[in-house]
């Protein structure tokens, strides 16, 4: 259920005094503690992850697109609902989180590719003493990309924490509404890209006049449909003197993107080499209303955030028939102000902090864990009484 914007704003104003997600399931007098556990150093991979740390933490490079693989397992352990392993066996918990590094495998001193290996993934799952107990129903895998859909996953009930749901491909997969697909995706959790990691500080963009109606700064992409969409958007932008569109090659040094963002009211965020874009969250961090151009996309935490309160959505059919910048110019000043105010709420919920803060990405992720973990308790006694062979 979405919270009204005014209520979210009031909650944000007391964020520093708020508590983290309540670690309880049930009702008063009959509840029991909720907990989750993050597995550590599966199959001796921690040395490898540490070798890639500097690369994925450099937010001026494209490598940081994959930094959620590093940060999410690390930051989750700060949460009060997390239980650590103190003996040879993992602790009892409602949810188990599996770090998985299919993209970090490309970085670091060793540049090993085992993170993409199907054989490695299956071996890793098989090593978990808790995975078989409930067929993976209480397990989440942290990764940037989904494990190859052709992989035979012995635990198909496992869910993903990902920056995109790749089943939802723009105009490609007509099955996205099928019950079997939705049943599989309903427990997946979509999280924002990491654009930066901050300490416990206020990060409101400084107030200043925004004289540019729209902005886009991005690279030339290889995916044909995405390239055609960007060329169409660029042609519209060239017709408006108060619109900025800058395309750069991957080898070019980007312009002062932050300065351009802070001068703009709206920012285009079309899909690129994948269906989602880190640019959306860079715009939000800069106080720019994102214009998300996609046909099928699942945005982070849509169960608690109404993205239409602070973002504009357009699909490819609209772009083909209408000038999107004229559309933006026709949005009333009052509506723009309201969306900018709501953006402050979204900025907090979608931000990564170290140390973590109540209501930020990590706390919202734990809320999703708790909702899932408490809901599946109805099956656990059944599985214990009738263990999987």
Characterise this structure.
Strand 9 (212-219), helix 6 and strand 10 (243-248) form a beta-alpha-beta unit. The strands form four sheets. A five-stranded parallel beta sheet has the order 3-4-5-6-7. A five-stranded parallel beta sheet has the order 10-9-11-12-13, with helices on both faces. Helix 1 (5-13) packs across helix 11 (333-349). With 389 residues, the chain is an alpha/beta fold. It has helices at 5-13, 46-56, 68-76, 118-126, 179-185, 224-237, 257-262, 279-285, 316-321, 324-329, 333-349, 361-375, 377-385; strands spanning 24-25, 32-33, 36-38, 95-99, 139-142, 159-162, 189-190, 197-198, 212-219, 243-248, 264-270, 289-293, 312-314, 352-353.
Write the layout of secondary structure elements.
Layout: H1 5-13, E1 24-25, E2 32-33, E3 36-38, H2 46-56, H3 68-76, E4 95-99, H4 118-126, E5 139-142, E6 159-162, H5 179-185, E7 189-190, E8 197-198, E9 212-219, H6 224-237, E10 243-248, H7 257-262, E11 264-270, H8 279-285, E12 289-293, E13 312-314, H9 316-321, H10 324-329, H11 333-349, E14 352-353, H12 361-375, H13 377-385
Helix pairs in contact: 1-11
């Amino acid at each position: 259920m979405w919270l009204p914007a005014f209520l979210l704003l009031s909650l944000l104003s007391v964020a520093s005094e708020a508590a983290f997600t309540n670690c309880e399931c049930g009702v008063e007098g009959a509840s029991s503690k909720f907990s989750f556990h993050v597995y550590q150093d599966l199959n001796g991979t921690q040395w490898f992850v540490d070798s890639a740390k500097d690369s994925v933490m450099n937010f001026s490079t494209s490598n940081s697109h994959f930094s959620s693989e590093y940060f999410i397992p690390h930051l989750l352990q700060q949460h009060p609902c997390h239980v650590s392993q103190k003996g040879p066996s993992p602790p009892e918990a409602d949810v188990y989180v599996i770090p998985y590094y299919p993209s970090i495998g490309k970085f670091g001193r060793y540049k090993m590719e085992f993170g993409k290996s199907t054989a490695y993934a299956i071996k890793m799952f098989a090593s978990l003493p808790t995975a078989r107990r409930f067929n993976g129903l209480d397990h989440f895998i942290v990764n940037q990309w989904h494990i190859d859909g052709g992989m035979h996953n012995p635990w198909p009930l496992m869910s993903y924490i990902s920056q995109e749901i790749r089943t939802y491909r723009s105009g490609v997969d007509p099955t996205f509404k099928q019950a079997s697909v939705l049943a599989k995706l309903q427990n997946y959790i979509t999280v924002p890209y990491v654009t930066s990691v901050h300490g416990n500080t206020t990060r409101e963009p400084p107030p200043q006049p925004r004289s540019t109606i729209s902005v886009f700064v991005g690279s030339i992409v290889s995916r044909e449909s995405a390239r055609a969409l960007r060329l169409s958007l660029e042609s519209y932008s060239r017709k408006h003197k108060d619109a900025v569109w800058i395309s750069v090659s991957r080898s070019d040094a980007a312009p002062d993107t932050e300065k351009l963002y802070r001068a703009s009211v709206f920012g285009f965020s079309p899909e690129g080499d994948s269906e989602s874009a880190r640019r959306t969250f860079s715009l939000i961090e800069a106080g720019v209303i994102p214009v998300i151009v996609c046909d099928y996309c699942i945005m982070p935490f849509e169960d608690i955030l109404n993205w239409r309160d602070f973002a504009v959505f357009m699909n490819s059919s609209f772009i083909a028939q209408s000038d999107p910048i004229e559309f933006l110019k026709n949005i009333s000043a009052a509506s723009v102000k309201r969306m900018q105010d709501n953006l402050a709420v979204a900025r907090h919920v979608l931000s990564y902090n170290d140390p973590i803060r109540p209501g930020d990405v990590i706390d919202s992720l734990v809320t999703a864990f708790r909702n899932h973990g408490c809901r599946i308790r109805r099956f656990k006694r059944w599985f214990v009484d009738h263990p999987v062979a």
